[in-house]
Write a structure and sequence with these properties.
The protein has helices at residues 2-26, 31-49, 69-89, 107-140, 142-156, 175-188, 195-212, 218-232, 239-243, 246-267. With 279 residues, the protein is mainly α.
Amino acid sequence: MVLIFFSFLLASAISPFAYHLFLSISGPLSFIRFYHRLLEIILLAVVFLFRKHLGLYHWADIGFKRPVFRPLLYGIGWAIGIVGFSFVIEPEILGKIIRFPQATGSIEDSLKIFSKAAAVAIIEEVMMRGILLGVFLRSIGELPALVASAGVFSLSHFLNNQPQNYSDFHPTLGSGFRVLLEMLQPVLRLEWISIQGLILFLLGILLGVAYINGKNIWQPIGIHGGIVFLVHSQSWIEPERLLSNSKESVILSIFSAVLWIFYRKYYGKSKGKLNVFFL
């Protein structure tokens, strides 16, 4: 956790200087978005620099291994099952239109959503499952690692607060720390103790179980990307309602349990010596 904390502080400190430097090259851009992208780059750079200390020697240690397409397709299948089952159990998630949807978006829109879903799934799964869960697995054991990584995954989705009047936000020397403090407000206000926080936690459990199943990252990428694509590809799905519906937590619990039982039956309990790593 030390490396994560350091990355946030470093991004907050250098973001105003980096923003003005980049502004002179690229033209007008959002400081908030720039801060988030810079933070992601710093996190990845820190992980790369300390990869051996984290037990990451090869791409396979993150989960990039063969087979690729089979676990990816399995993951997409799980995503279709989760979203489809959600609509069967709770039709209100569909919003005001309770009927089979007609695609209204263009191919260009669909490609944009696909690109967004793929980027979100790959970035978050590499960070949360490939790196964080992988390190936890080698440090504290399987079940505690699964719970801890799911908790971090849930909390991370509440780090999206923005300063007031951010559209007129002109970065100064302390602007990076101002953004960081605003990002932390939902966490400090305990907004994660909610149905949405529970659903995100259970989704983290599901994705973690999928990763532990063979230490292959392609299956959680398929699940994560599939859910993001299905939820955002049609206007008839309301993401906020999906994340605030109590029945969704039951659905994710069922799918997590089924996947866990399947994993235990066909792969057995992993054994190995634990090594302590510090993030």
